[in-house]
């Protein structure tokens, strides 16, 4: 037997052992365990505000930590910071490249970032001295499109890219601090843990990976999806991960049990999941789909408890504000809607 | 893509590399559409309807389709069936015979099924030359049902301008198509004409309607040959007029798996195996109790007090959250975990106050100082890190914290080259200490209990 074949056999045997170890702790399923939990009942949310102003598909949005400001990115080449209560545009930032795919709001509220087909992450300072919003840094090193970015602070940001890697950058020096390599397909999305020690990434290799930010290593890998993972997020307690995929399902993986606990699917849902966000308690999971709707799931029972229908094209992004008061959806129909 | 790390693909014979997200949806729709037309297996009855002096062949009512969807796909809500059916229509698999707008109505509106030849899964990307030929031939036939709609007439005018120099060619192609069509049976032509029109409704939709063939640009690189020669609907050879869309072509050459790759994978798998998996029942409990605890704070599930600012336009909810004078409900949250208490600025203040009363505030002050260090600009980091060392860890420090010797060693090593994360280890240790010791006492303290039970302070009156 050749050396390569021997190594492969060893890898396969280890995989079998891991599968067995996971099975060994399956003394129940989440659905069974949650059977006794009181039902949530039908969740009906209405559109409270519509943010109009973009002229083309919206690809991304992100709430600021204050729960009223949010930023959105559209293929009309603009990054807009909205006061979502008044629907006023606080900033309308013209971009060098109109093929933008992601945007992020720093926790401090001082910076926003965006990127896309230009393979770069551009950082903008909203609180510049003369009041003008200018590019502060251009983080360039990725060899593929920028699919997602999230700030750790005003000095560090994590990006995911179509070049199959994620990178931790130092914003001040504009350099790469750590490259997280391991995915075998485009990285589509990332989310940072509540304690800022870990982040998760979802990719076109159908897997999600948990990374230790300081150590730079992949700690865990989760599979099971049958197509690209487009969206990913942490359950609010930081111990579980939720993914959304082109296979029209969302999945919940627990970090400590090291396995999938539940799948959110329905035979009448055929279109892929583009985005997701848990509610403040984690009891509800809001997911945006290519069929123009947002479906609201009871996260413990995997039952659909509501639908947000109002967009005339794909829902491309969704976010729940940090105080849990409002959900914002962005769509290819060029509008953002605030629901609760 | 290197092999090995991919999970086994699920159902079907489809090759994941070939399937764009749209294709996955097409296959699901095609499954439904095939079943719904199968009259022998519970499908809808497709029939000819008499209308005035003519017959309308091969149609089914929207209501029948909705009924079938509800029965066969276990859909309870008719609105959901309509949404699903409209999705099928928007992709052109069914279409209303007298409308360009592709949506499903739950009434007597008549629909027809699209010919598999025109199915979107055939990866049609018809050129404007094809569209021009199509509109042109429609004007050649003197039939009321083939008259151009306003937007189509506008499109034709624009195409005539754009293709001015090769219009003679287009005209000839259109004439040839009309000749071919004339040879067909009358009823067959009615059906084919409508299917052809529905095809163009998908690829050149009515203004205001969504173009469902659009793909997410991030997924465009999935196409194996994005610049391949596109096939023409009317057999017209491609003359290179196609506009390339901004397709991202992966700059990664497909690597072959090396022995090092597999060895790396083995190392990773070994580390996975070492990890202890917690029982599902335990983690399920943990998730359930978390949601239970926080549900009263979740505005999507419980009513908020005061009112939700989004609904009532009353900002007092946010004013209260920002105030340092917390409500009982907010104080209750501090008792859930030390993390929750420290998240809230008022919680931090009160915990600090309690620790000061015990003369043990150095732990929390150290923790806060390290949090602050992590957010400092680079130029301040080194000096600030030194200050923290002097204050909390150096020999004879004014606020000495209690670190085990291992953490102390590591930290003093880190400080030789100070950075934002030099105190990460120490901070974690101190956090655990506070959690297991002073936090529990804090929750039992008068400072906390007074706020939790909203006990008014007894004021001395003299």
Would you give an account of this structure?
Chain A has 2 helices and 28 strands. Chain A is mainly beta. In chain A, the strands form 7 sheets. Chain A has a 4-stranded antiparallel beta sheet with strand order 1-28-27-26, with no helix packed on it. A 4-stranded antiparallel beta sheet of chain A has the order 2-3-4-5, with no helix packed on it. In chain A, a hairpin with a 4-residue loop joins strand 4 (78-83) and strand 5. The radius of gyration of chain A is 20 Å and the shape is globular. Chain B has 20 helices and 4 strands. Chain B has helices at residues 21-37, 62-72, 78-90, 128-140, 150-162, 167-182, 186-203, 259-274, 280-294, 309-312, 316-322, 328-334, 338-343, 345-357, 362-374, 378-393, 405-415, 424-436, 438-444, 446-452, and strands spanning 47-51, 54-61, 94-96, 110-113. Chain B has a 4-stranded antiparallel beta sheet. In chain B, strand 1 and strand 2 (54-61) form a beta hairpin. In chain B, helix 4 (128-140) packs across helix 5 and helix 15 runs antiparallel to helix 16. The longest helix of chain B has 18 residues, at 186-203. The radius of gyration of chain B is 35 Å and the shape is elongated. Classes of the chains: A mainly beta (340), B mainly alpha (462). Chains A and B meet through helix 1 and strand 17 of A and helix 1, helix 3, helix 8, helix 9 and helix 10 of B. Chain A: Belongs to the WD repeat G protein beta family. Chain A: Pfam families: WD40_Gbeta (PF25391).
Main attributes of the structure:
heterodimer, A: 340 residues, mainly beta, 4-stranded antiparallel β-sheet, 2 helices, 8% helix, 49% strand, globular, B: 462 residues, mainly alpha, 51% helix, elongated, GGL_sf (chain B), RGS6/7/9/11 (chain B), RGS (chain B)
Order of helices and strands of chain A: HHEEEEEEEEEEEEEEEEEEEEEEEEEEEE
Globally, the shape of chain B reads elongated
User: What is the arithmetic mean of pLDDT of chain B?
Assistant: 87
Which class of secondary structure composition applies to the elements of chain A? mainly beta
User: Biggest sheet of chain A: strands side by side, in what order?
Assistant: 1-28-27-26
User: Biggest interface and its residues per chain?
Assistant: A-B, 108 and 85 residues
Order of helices and strands of chain B: HEEHHEEHHHHHHHHHHHHHHHHH
Give the fraction of residues assigned to helices of chain A.
under 10%
**Total number of strands of chain A:** 28
Largest sheet of chain B: 4 strands, antiparallel
Mean pLDDT across all residues of chain A, rounded?
96
- Specify the oligomeric state: heterodimer
Alpha-carbon Rg of chain A, integer = 20 Å
Helix content of chain B: 40-55%
């Amino acid at each position: 037997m050749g050396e390569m074949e021997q190594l492969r056999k060893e890898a396969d045997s280890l995989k079998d052992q891991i599968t067995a170890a996971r099975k060994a702790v399956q003394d129940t399923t989440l659905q069974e365990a949650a059977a006794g939990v009181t039902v949530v009942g039908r969740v009906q949310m209405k559109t409270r505000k519509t943010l109009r102003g973009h002229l083309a598909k919206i690809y991304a949005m992100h709430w600021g930590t204050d729960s009223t400001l949010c930023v959105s990115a559209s293929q009309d080449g603009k990054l807009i910071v909205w006061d979502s209560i008044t629907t006023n545009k606080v900033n309308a930032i013209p971009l060098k490249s109109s093929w933008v795919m992601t945007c992020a709001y720093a926790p401090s509220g001082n910076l926003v970032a965006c990127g896309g087909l230009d393979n770069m992450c551009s950082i903008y300072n909203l609180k510049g001295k003369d009041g003008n919003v200018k590019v502060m840094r251009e983080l360039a090193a990725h060899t593929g499109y920028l699919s997602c970015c999230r700030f750790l602070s005003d000095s560090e940001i994590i990006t995911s890219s179509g070049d199959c890697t994620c990178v931790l950058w130092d914003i001040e020096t504009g350099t790469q601090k750590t490259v997280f390599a391991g995915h075998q397909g485009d990285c589509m999305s990332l989310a940072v843990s509540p304690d800022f020690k870990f982040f998760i990434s979802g990719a076109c290799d159908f897997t999600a990976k948990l990374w230790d930010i300081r150590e730079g290593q992949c700690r865990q890998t989760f599979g099971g999806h049958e197509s690209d993972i487009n969206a990913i997020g942490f359950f609010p307690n930081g111990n579980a991960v939720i993914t959304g995929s082109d296979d029209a399902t969302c999945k919940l993986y627990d970090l400590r049990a090291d396995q999938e606990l539940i799948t959110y699917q329905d035979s009448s849902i055929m279109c892929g999941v583009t985005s997701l966000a848990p509610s403040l308690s984690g009891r509800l999971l809001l997911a945006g789909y290519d069929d123009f709707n947002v479906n609201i799931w009871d996260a413990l029972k995997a039952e659909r408890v509501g639908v947000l229908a109002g967009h005339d094209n794909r829902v491309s992004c969704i976010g729940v504000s940090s105080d849990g008061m409002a959900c914002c959806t962005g769509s290819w129909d060029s509008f953002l809607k605030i629901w609760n | 893509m290197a092999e090995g790390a991919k999970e086994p693909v699920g159902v079907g014979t489809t090759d994941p590399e070939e399937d764009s997200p749209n294709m996955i949806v097409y296959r699901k729709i095609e499954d439904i559409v095939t079943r719904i037309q199968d009259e022998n297996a519970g499908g809808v009855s497709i029939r000819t309807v008499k209308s005035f002096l003519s017959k309308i062949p091969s149609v089914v009512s929207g209501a029948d389709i909705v009924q079938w969807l509800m029965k066969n796909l276990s859909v309870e809500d008719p609105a959901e069936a309509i949404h699903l059916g409209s999705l099928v229509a928007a992709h052109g698999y069914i279409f209303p015979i007298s409308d360009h707008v592709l949506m499903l109505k739950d009434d007597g509106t008549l629909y027809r099924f699209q010919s598999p030849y025109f199915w979107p899964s055939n990866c049609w990307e018809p050129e404007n030359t094809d569209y021009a030929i199509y509109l042109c031939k429609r004007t050649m036939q003197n039939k009321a049902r083939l008259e151009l709609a306003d937007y189509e007439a506008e499109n034709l005018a624009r195409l005539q301008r754009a293709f001015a120099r090769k219009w003679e060619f287009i005209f000839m192609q259109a004439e040839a198509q009309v000749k071919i069509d004339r040879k067909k049976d009358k009823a067959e032509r009615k059906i084919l004409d409508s299917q052809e029109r529905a095809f163009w409704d998908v690829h050149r939709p009515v203004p205001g309607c969504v173009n469902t063939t659009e793909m997410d640009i991030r997924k465009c690189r999935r196409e194996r040959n994005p610049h391949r020669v596109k096939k023409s609907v009317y057999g017209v050879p491609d003359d290179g007029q196609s506009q390339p869309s901004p397709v991202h072509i992966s700059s990664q050459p497909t690597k072959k798996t090396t022995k090092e790759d597999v060895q790396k994978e083995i190392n990773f798998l070994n580390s996975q195996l070492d990890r202890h998996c917690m029982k599902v029942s335990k983690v399920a409990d943990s998730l359930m109790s978390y949601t239970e605890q926080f549900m009263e704070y979740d505005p999507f599930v419980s009513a908020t007090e005061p009112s939700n600012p989004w609904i009532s336009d009353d900002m007092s909810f946010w004013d209260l959250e920002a105030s340092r004078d917390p409500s009982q409900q907010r104080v209750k949250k501090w008792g859930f975990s030390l993390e929750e208490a420290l998240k809230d600025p008022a919680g931090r203040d009160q915990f600090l106050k309690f620790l000061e009363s015990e003369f043990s505030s150095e732990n929390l002050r150290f923790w806060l100082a390290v949090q602050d260090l992590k957010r400092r600009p680079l130029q301040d980091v080194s000096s600030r890190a030194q200050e923290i060392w002097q204050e909390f860890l150096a020999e004879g420090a004014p606020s000495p914290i209690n670190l085990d010797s291992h953490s102390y060693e590591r930290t003093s090593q880190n400080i030789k080259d100070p950075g934002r994360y030099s105190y990460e280890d120490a901070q974690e240790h101190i956090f655990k200490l506070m959690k297991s010791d002073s936090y529990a006492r804090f929750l039992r303290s008068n400072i906390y209990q007074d706020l939790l039970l909203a006990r008014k302070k007894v004021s001395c009156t003299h």
